[in-house]
Known about the structure:
- The chain has 17 helices and six strands.
- By secondary structure, it is mostly helical.
- Protoporphyrin IX containing FE (HEM) binds next to helix 6 and helix 12.
- Keywords: Heme, Iron, Metal-binding, Monooxygenase, Oxidoreductase.
Amino acid sequence: MISFLLQRPFLGLTALLLLIKWYFTPGTPKGFRLPPCPPPKPIIGNLLDMPKEREWETYGEWAKKYGELVYLNLMGTSMFIINSRQMAHELFDKRSSIYSDRMDLPMLNDVMGSGWLLPFHRYGDRWRRHRRVLHEKFHVGAAVLYRPTQLKRARSVILDGAERRHGSMALYIVRELLKRLLRTPEDYAEHIRHIAGATILESVYAINVKSKDDPFIIGADKSIRAIAEAGIPGTFWVDLFPWLKYIPDWVPGAVFKQKARVWRRYIIDMNELPYQATKDAIRAGTAQSCFVTANLEELAANPSAPPDQETVIKNAAGVIFTGASDTTVNSMITFIPVMILYPEVQRKAQAELDTVVGGDCLVDFNDQPDLPYIGTIIKEVLRWRPLFPQAIAHATAREDIIGEYFIPKGTVVVGNSWGLLHDENDFGPNTDEFIPERFLRPGIRNPANTGAFGYGRRICPGIHFAESPKDNNGKELPVDYEFSSGLLSYPGKFKYSIEPRSEKARELVMTSVLFEMDS
Ligand code: HEM
């Protein structure tokens, strides 16, 4: 065995470091134990038990077997999965000063160049400063409220608007989307991605995108898919053995390095290129008002700002672009297979629209309070197929005790959002079925407070931005599709057709004014 390892220095070094790591793993204090876990193997622990896809299904089976806390030892790295809402609340909310950290993610942060992304920041001042810049523009009251400063373009961002104005921005998306759908319904996903990306690029950077195949939007999609693939702790060994990040790309077996070389370019470009485009426009005196210009103006007026505040602004802009270009898009994409799979839901939604809006105009955000059934569909989309089935893993900033259990410092903590959102105690019977009516019953929880947007102090800052009802016209067709595994779960390809329900509807869409608003 020893001579085998000596002939293979890379493997030998790994084995040696494993042994050292295992030897120095701190023990559990007397009188306490670690939460229950699947039987571990010597040294590698539960590494081979980790599911490679649809992780939440395995987590669900473990939850039935081991209970609300399931512990895993991944070669000396502790991880536990929280399977009940009550425990998630106890730890993420009540003990948030312990449970708001993130693990070191060498693959994402160092090898792939995602260190600028707020979701992967360690808990502390750097995270707080980035979060503050976002919070100023995204909290409920003043929140995200986009007001056009130029009526003609109707696209710039402001910082003090009202809910109605946020609605108008989303309305712009819906109207433009409907027009594109009438022309080429088969490109539904591409249209949504394009329109959402275009809107966010204009709002955040005042960038006008190309009407098709825009490089910023394509680059963002590639970055996010890479991040989703690498974002689950344990997917790449370098997260367990950070020293692996130093090995050169050409070393046989270093596939992660080869993948990362391609991904790194997308991820860095996603932050740098749009920001530099705005800076160029500022220098040329042609910049339109947007999130970046507004923040840079504030910065110029604040001589006591820290020297790296511009980087914080750049990163905050980049994270809005990242967060908004994919997440909302995929929730909207999920909506279509739902309408095909559940035609009765579609019919009820159309009936509600017909009653409230009638056939003479298009739906507007002012109609939202009168469309309760469509509101329940949005909640059910977030619940039924959560975009982040296991949220983003938190980590413990120090050790903790939960009843008889000891939780080591640095433990990776996964909220099993899928499990929580399918718990029949909270959401009523048949949680595997898409039943929006469940939200009409009193006492049913809101998915947004049950893991769909994450937990505690790290809860998604885009939560108020992410809601936006959509009306659509679907046609019944058999559908065959799957949701992907990984950090984000997207619907795969499926067949569908989208048609206007009447000639009048077609005419309304084609003649609608894209953006009506007072200045
Ligand atoms: C349907 C839409 C969305 C869903 C389902 C969603 C879901 C999530 C989830 C589950 C997390 C992890 C929270 C945790 O660690 O506990 C998260 C974090 C985050 N989201 Fe969203 N999100 C959405 C839209 C957005 C938008 C539009 C933005 C843009 C501002 C955004 C920005 C972020 C950021 C910056 C974080 C990291 C927060 C931190 O680590 O402190 N998200 N989101």
